[in-house]
Specification:
This protein is α+β, with helices and mostly antiparallel strands and 917 residues long. It has 37 helices and 28 strands. It has a 7-stranded mixed β-sheet with strand order 13-12-9-14-15-17-16, with helices on both faces.
Length: 917
């Protein structure tokens, strides 16, 4: 048999045939063994644990997996994690699948689950399917396996486990006799063998599966239907938030928007945290299902504070006697729906970083109190920024590994204890979670290697209290994890709710592999709390604005509350005295200063040299809050690499970076956002540095005689949001798209219907002529002038000029050879595709100072002639005419080029560079 390709859609992967045949031979032997003893194996006397040890373990060993951890001592790098089949007392179902498989080198995210059953039971039933799909859906894995060895079922876990529909997914079933059939075994092997999974077989398989047909929603109290776990849980929490807000407002009409937002946030955080404790079996009983009133919930929270401490259970306004809370009926419905008995969500399986991404979206909204009720709305700053964007985990991991990882490499725990790592715009804490996770893994490996031949520690050992031997491996003690959190992790965010959620996320990570006995033992030791106080570590404040904003100004309390100033010397005194943080990581806000108040803009423009936007200022702030030789790792828009307006930021990096690593990632890093981004790692130096990491010496061409950018002297807007299907040969209004455009020429316009025209609310003044049209895509600037008030689609920018900078002058500049060079240097270097011009790139184009009005008049005259010549060229009837008019156009373009060089004061040597001589 010749093995050629995988059975996963269109992707073809060739794997060593010898591996396949070896696996097939081993599995056939297992099938033979099963068939010989089938009467016993199918009897009620044969248990699940026996079929696992005799058949299922060896089945997956044959597929290449290290089921027994025979090839690694590092507990972080176990490919297969096997759970004991043991139900918690009083629990209705297991909280973990029997096997979880991880594809190296990613030992954090589960690739797929395997749920085992005894062969005497019918495998194809609703309960088994529901249980297995529930595991996969909550852990965000697309497929899972349900098997008793006699049968092998591949289950589709892309959609919520609803008992009514779990049997309807895109499932596959195999009998043990099918294992002998090479073609049928191929399907299993190419999908679940170690080699296949490393080649992304599961995702490829999932992508090729048919989309689910429309089904009725699960009839629960809150939404969250056939969606991914993160989308579903976010929608579910939105429903809980709205219900609580209405109930709180109904009981106390005097509650303000801020009070409602804060009260709902704290209540939701407590409910989520309690469910986490229940599912992790850290708490011995189900709390949510036991509540009988709002007051009962508050009383329980006070008891939980005695054990856990932490911001979640800290004394809050909702705990006070004056707070009337939610009405018992609606609150108990929430608790019932969220309880472990009824909820579709398994907090034991939802990765903490997934919860973080959910909360990041959740924090983008606030509650607005109306006179009679409450509404949930996007925060104004989120609306202006176009949404909330959570950094993908692989970006977080890369930045953390190349900052924190570099700093602690080779260090002992006692040395690491002095290092400080921060995210000064932490949001829901994704980067701090990544830092904490990395530190925990490093310490686990350190102690695993040190103690690999021991299973006990003596009382006198200096490592006593740092680790504990549990479940056949060394695990970090709760007290050590608390120390790491307090010693190493620091964060700042302007949003109080974000600070609360960051602490919540870190606490969930702290407790991730704890048990009832370990937390109880910690509490019993000198009455210590399970959760440390992070008040001085995760701080609420404005990283960019200090209290010096008040110098010489008077702010009322509301203004001060909105500004939320923060002085780092006061917030982190020991760290600042030692020179600053050892590393700062993160994803700062991508916001233009124009959305801020006048007071904020004035302060920021005076304080920061790199003042183009907030992410520039954050980079500058980080540089000055880092100690010498410290590292900064950020993901930001890549405009600063080439953009003329960012020369001050580049100069600062060149001055203060002894090392600078840059990775451009292009579009699509953030869901639904086409912002080109880059990741960089900067090593700070106190000594002045002369290295140019950007090598943009050509930038002087455009800056030495420039005092203004295009966006400052023009009004630029996109056209109508319409697709090609709404463009016709005839119709109500003229409308052109990018396909109608070439340089200096617009083809005969198309039309849109009256209905399409009136369906758009856009200000029609942006289409008034004269206007310069700039095409969004192209290998250089494609521009032409419209004098006919035509409408445009969104693929065109409408530029209306003011003052000395007429559309004729701008046409000449942007269509010149100099700006063809600019385009290739700063907007689309090293690409053969048609790149998109961003509106911010268009706005930052540097324009020359107007010293010589005669040169400007000459350019405008030549542009007018060229527009006419291009129109004549388009109507040429013969080849001779076409050649003649083409030469005329080329002559006019050359004259314009020479005048543009003069406007920008280029030297002969610089002109040679531009023209590639």
């Amino acid at each position: 048999m010749e093995i050629k390709e995988t059975i996963v859609g269109e992707k073809k992967e060739v794997i060593d045939p010898a591996l396949f045949y070896k696996a097939h031979e081993a599995v056939c032997k297992l099938a033979d063994k099963f068939e010989k003893g089938i009467d016993f194996y199918l009897s009620a006397d044969y248990s699940e644990s026996e079929v696992r040890s005799e058949f299922i373990d060896d089945f997956f060993r044959a597929l290449g997996w290290d089921v027994g951890h025979n090839y690694t001592i590092d507990p972080r790098k176990r490919e297969v994690r096997v759970e004991k089949t043991q139900l918690q007392k009083g629990s209705k179902s297991q909280k973990y699948a029997d096997y979880a498989f991880y594809a190296p080198p990613n030992y954090k995210d589960i690739s797929f689950f395997v749920e085992a059953k005894r062969p005497s039971k019918d495998l194809e039933n609703i309960d088994h399917y529901f249980q297995t799909i529930r595991y996969g859906w909550n852990a965000n894995t697309p497929v899972a396996v349900l098997t008793d060895f006699e049968e092998f079922h591949i289950l589709d876990c892309r959609y919520e486990a609803d008992p009514r529909y779990v049997m309807d997914g895109a499932h596959q079933k195999f009998h043990f006799t099918d294992y002998r059939d090479l073609k049928k075994f191929e399907v299993i092997y190419w999908l679940f063998s170690r080699e296949a999974v490393l080649e992304n077989s599961l995702q490829d398989y999932s992508d090729a599966l048919p989309k689910a047909k429309s089904k009725a929603r699960q009839k629960k109290l809150f939404k969250g239907g056939y969606q991914s776990i993160d989308d579903s849980f976010l929608e579910y929490l939105d429903g809980v938030r709205y219900s609580l807000a209405k109930s709180f407002k109904k009981h106390d009409n005097s509650l303000s928007s801020e009070q409602l937002t804060e009260a709902v946030q704290r209540t939701v955080d407590r409910l989520v945290f309690i469910r986490f404790l229940e599912d992790k079996e850290i708490e011995p009983s189900d709390h949510l299902s036991s509540y009988r009133s709002w007051k009962n919930f508050i009383a329980d929270c006070k008891l939980l504070k005695g054990k856990y401490n932490g911001v979640v259970f800290n004394e809050h306004g909702i705990d006070g006697a004056d707070f009337k809370g939610a009405d018992d009926e609606s609150f108990l419905r929430i608790c019932e729906d969220m309880s472990s008995q009824n909820s579709k969500y398994l907090f034991s399986l939802i990765p903490v970083h997934i919860l973080g991404s959910i909360y990041e979206q959740f924090l983008g909204k606030v509650i607005r109190a109306t006179p009679t009720t409450a509404k949930v709305e996007e925060k104004p700053e989120v609306r202006k920024a176009g949404g909330v964007y959570y950094t993908p985990k692989y970006i977080v991991d890369y930045i953390v590994e190349n900052t924190v990882g570099k700093i602690i490499e080779g260090l002992k725990p006692i040395e690491i204890a002095t290092k400080t790592f921060a995210d000064i715009a932490c949001g829901s804490g994704s980067f701090l979670l990544g830092v904490y996770d990395y530190l925990l893994d490093y310490h686990r490996l350190y102690y695993a290697q040190k103690l690999k031949d021991k299973t006990t520690l003596s009382e006198s050992s200096k490592d006593y209290g740092k680790v504990a031997y549990r479940d056949n491996e060394w695990k970090l003690s709760l007290s050590l994890k608390q120390e790491i959190l307090l010693n190493n992790i620091y964060g700042v965010d302007i949003d109080a709710q974000a600070v609360e959620v960051t602490q919540l996320s870190l606490f969930l990570k702290l407790l991730e592999d704890e048990t009832l006995s370990s937390t109880t033992a910690t509490q019993g030791r000198m009455f210590s709390k399970v959760l440390p106080d992070l008040t001085n570590n995760i701080v609420c404040g404005n990283s960019l604005i200090g209290f010096d904003i008040m110098d010489g100004q008077l702010f009322d309390n509301e203004q001060l509350k909105k500004l939320n100033p923060l002085d780092y010397q006061s917030a982190f005194p020991p760290i600042m005295r030692n020179g600053g943080f050892d590393a700062i990581v993160g994803n700062p806000p991508y916001v233009r200063p124009s959305v801020l108040s006048e007071e904020e803009r004035t302060y920021l423009f005076n304080k920061y040299e790199a003042d183009n936007d907030l992410y520039s200022m954050f980079i500058e702030k980080c540089i000055f809050e880092l100690s010498n030789k410290a590292l900064l790792g950020y993901i930001v828009p890549s405009l600063f690499i080439k953009g003329v307006a960012y020369k001050d930021l580049r100069a600062m990096i060149n001055t203060y970076a002894s090392e600078f690593e840059l990775i451009e990632r292009g579009d699509g890093v953030f869901k639904d956002v086409q912002m080109p981004t880059c990741t960089f790692i900067l090593k700070k130096t106190i000594k002045k540095n002369n290295t140019d990491y950007f090598q943009n010496s050509n930038i002087k061409f455009f800056t030495k005689n420039s005092n203004v950018n295009l966006g400052e002297v023009t009004f630029i807007r996109r056209g109508l949001e319409i697709g090609r299907k709404k463009i016709f040969a005839e119709g109500f209004k003229k409308c052109i798209t990018g396909s109608h455009m070439s340089s200096y020429h617009i083809k005969e316009p198309s039309y849109i219907s009256k209905a399409t025209f009136y369906s758009f609310k856009k200000d029609l003044s942006i289409f008034e002529s004269p206007k310069l049209l700039v095409r969004e895509t192209g290998k250089t600037f494609v521009t032409s002038i419209d004098n006919d008030n035509v409408l445009t689609s969104r693929s065109l920018y409408n530029v209306q000029a003011t003052g000395d900078y007429t559309v004729f002058l701008l046409q000449g500049i942007l269509s010149s050879r100099l700006f063809n060079f600019y385009f290739k240097t700063f907007i689309a270097p090293d690409t053969n595709v048609f790149p998109k011009i961003r509106i911010v790139q268009l706005k930052e184009i540097p324009l020359p100072k107007i010293y010589d009005k005669n040169k400007v008049n000459d350019i405008e005259t030549l542009v007018a002639k060229l527009l006419t010549a291009k129109q004549t060229l388009a109507t040429a009837a013969t080849e001779q005419e076409e050649n003649l008019y083409q030469r005329q156009c080329e002559s006019l373009e050359r004259q314009i080029d020479e005048l543009v060089y003069e406007l920008y004061e280029l030297t002969p040597e610089e002109i040679k560079i531009v023209e590639g001589v």
